[in-house]
Every structure is written in C-alpha cells, then in structure tokens.
Amino acid sequence: QLAEGDLDALLSYLHTFSTAPIPISGDTTSNLIPEKIQDSDIRLDLVFYAQLPPSDAVAPLAKMTKMEPIPGTTRLMINDQRVGLYELVDQKPQLYLPLLKLRLKMVSKPGWATGLGSFAFHPEFAKNGLFYTSHTEPGGTAKADVGYTDSLKVFMQWVLTEWKADDPKESVFKGSSREILRVNNSSQAHGMQELTFNPQAKKGASADYGLLYVGYGDGGTAENGFPEISNHGGKGMYSSIWRIDPLGKTGRNGQYGIPTSNPFFGKKDFAGEVYAYGFRNPNRIFWDEKGQLHSTDIGQHSIEEINRIEPGRFYGWPIREGTFVINPYGSFRSLYPLPEDDAKFGVSYPKIQLEHDETVAIIGGYTVADGPLKGKFVSGDVPTGRLFFTDLTEENAVAQSWGIRYKGKEMSLQELVGHDRVDLKFGRDGANGLYVMSKTNGGVYKVVGK
Length: 450
Description:
By secondary structure, this protein is mainly β. It is built from 4 helices and 28 strands. The radius of gyration is 22 Å and the shape is globular.
C-alpha cells in the first residue's frame, strides 16, 4: 500500500551512512588524541567537611549532584537525589525540602541520573522565596509538555518545578509550588541534569538576569534508535541547553516565558526555548571569569567535551563525538574522520576534548578563587575521581591533572573513599570555596591547599 515515494524514502533511510568511510576507531581507547593530559604536580589538601546521611545501604550511600549557596547568602544547599534538598548548618545536614514526601511519585531508581537531578535558587530568593528543582517520575504519570514519536516508549518523565517559600529565612520549607514543564524521556539517562542562573548577571545591567538555564540531554533517544529526535536543527527540545524566563507566560504551556533574545525566538517551527543544541548530556553549565558560557558534555564511548556555548550554535551530537564523525545509525564505538566538506554541517567543536583512555565521564566544577589553581576551571572524571583543570579564557586551552592530600598523605580519591568508583561531584560555598564530593561514601571535602 506504500506509494513509490514512500518506498524510496524507506530505502534511503535503510542505506543511511552506507557509504561512510572506513572507521578510524572501533573501540574506546584507540589513541585518537595523541597528546596526553600532563600532570601539573599541584597537590592540594582536603579536609572533611560534612557527611550526608545514607539514603541506601549500599554504595552510593548518598546521591548529591551539586552543592551551592543561596545567592547573596552563606546558606549552603546540597541535594540527595533519593531524598530532597538539605541545608548544611554548622556543617550538619538539615533537610530543607523533603521532596520525596512532597512528590510521592518521584522515583530515584534505576540509578544514574534519576530522582532530584538539580536545583537552582532565584537570584532574588531572599525577597521572592523562589527556587527550582528537576526530578523524575514514571512514564505516563501525567500529560507531557514535551514529547516525541509514539514509536518510542516513554520510560520516565522529567518535571521542572517552581517552589515559593512563605518565609525565605525559614530553615525548613513551607510554601507552595507549581509545575512548570514536564518532559518525556526514553531511558533513565541524559535528562534534566542541570538548572542554573547566571551568577554574574546583574539586575538592570544584564539581559541574563533572572533567566533559568536548563541542560537537557538526548534522553537516550539516540541509543534507542531514534537519533533524529536530538538531531533537530533547533526545532526540538532534546539534546539542548534551554534558556527560559520562569516568571513569564509565553512558553508552550503558559507556565514560563521565552526570552525575546533567545536565538530561535519567534521563528516558525523552531523551539524558542533552545539556546544551543547538539549535546548528548550537558550535565553542568557554567561561566568563566570573562562571562563566557560553557558546558561539560558526557560522551558516548570515546570523547568527553567542554564546550564554549554561543547562542544558536550546533555542538555535533548525534553526528559528531568531539572532532570525529559518529554514525548514529551504526556502531557508537566507531568513529570516522571529518569530511572535507565539514563546514557545511555548521558544527561548533569542543574547547577541550578528552579521550576515554584518560577519562570516562566528565563532570564540571567551578573556577577556583585563589591558591595555585586561581582562575582555573576544575573538572574531573565521575567514576575514578581523577581531577583536571584548565584556563578556559586561553585560546588554545589544555587540560592538566592535579591531585589531593588528605591528613598529610597524598592519595587518589579512590583511596580516600575506599572504592573503585568515586562518583565525583563538585561544590562551592558563598565565599567561592571549592569542594569535592563523593556519592559513594556521601562525603563532602573542602579544598584548602595553597
């Protein structure tokens, strides 16, 4: 019953990438990047700072993803994906938002990136009491605002919520909430991993002030055989960094606004929320000392990335991994050289790319305020806890490694936590102090070495 044109379209799809060049890599450790990360010989001291209560009997004992202060205060907030949002009071965790009790449908299993994924306090929280969270619920819990083809199962949903505290000074949340956006996800991975406001934006002086950045990955759609969902050219919401006005009403469901300065605002058939796209898993979003936006992006089998973000630009996924071609309809382990006509694809390539013989899953941190790493952006490898730094303001930036001492002894983070998997995360306090955290043991450590 198919028309001739439909048959041609099917054949064309079946032969996608059939003339791809011979792969230069069929595995994850093929020395694609010959320059290895050099050790800086910098070793900084860690001191134990806080311990989150165990939310499971086996590792990871606690599942923090970020720790940041409420803007303009010294109040230090940290999440456990299984439980909710804590405040560290005199270095002791006090449950501020018991999300699991307030959202009974929240799920944090299977593991990885489920549960309370991220949080962000409005820059005027002290006045308006507003803050934001992302969390997961089972697929089909409620009607989604963002979805995809019905040929692909909805495994779970990511929910963006606004909370309004009656009294912002209270130590335990009391107030109201509203759902801003609900997004279908085809797997447990690559969802709404980051919420953040530009900490450098000043009221009345920056168009960024009060705008919420959201990092959303491909939701596992590429690995599940639907790479076109993330390869959308700005017309879709997946594999993207969004910028929205949480206090506006012009969004697709009237619960948020789309800034007029967004690159796709007002363009027919485009997703106005999208600020940049082409990411597999943009798990952290941050600004360097010059105010330039960046994001860490966890790769597939070969390359990890730190990207400098420009509005409206395409960052390659799912047809690129780092500076290499990937066939989204073939083996994700095979990489190919860039074609001679690569410019026509309009890809923006990473500021820093690291191969999987150096790191497996990159996680971003912060720019260090003082000490030997002053002005440097720190990052690391989630599983092993290997630590890196780079000066993102340099044109030809490179990554170097650094290490830690604990109680006077130089050691790896694997030794510190007593486990092969560190599950590394970073935090900062109101004085821009740097912290290293491990989901494995639920520990928070302050970097104090000079």
